């Protein structure tokens, strides 16, 4: 029996997908990741889009 791929949506964060994955971009290019969990960017701020680099996080405030 095949185990379904788990996809988790993080509030104000990325979409987490159990890996490994092959992601097909709209222009036909593919991005592959062999990690156990892959974070996909939903804000498009990531410098390594479609993979998340935590650019969605707001800067920490200092006192």
UniProtKB/TrEMBL annotation:
- Would you tell me the Gene Ontology cellular component terms? cytoplasm
User: Known Pfam families for this protein?
Assistant: zf-CDGSH
Keyword annotations for this protein, in alphabetical order, are: 2Fe-2S, Iron, Iron-sulfur, Metal-binding
Q: What InterPro entries does this protein map onto?
A: FeS-contain_CDGSH-typ, MitoNEET_CISD
Q: Which domain of life is it from?
A: Bacteria
Where does the Iron-binding zinc finger CDGSH type domain lie?
24-62
Q: Which GO terms describe its molecular function?
A: 2 iron, 2 sulfur cluster binding; metal ion binding
Q: Which residues form a coiled coil?
A: none
Its protein name is Iron-binding zinc finger CDGSH type domain-containing protein
Q: What is the lineage of its organism?
A: Bacteria, Bacillati, Actinomycetota, Actinomycetes, Mycobacteriales
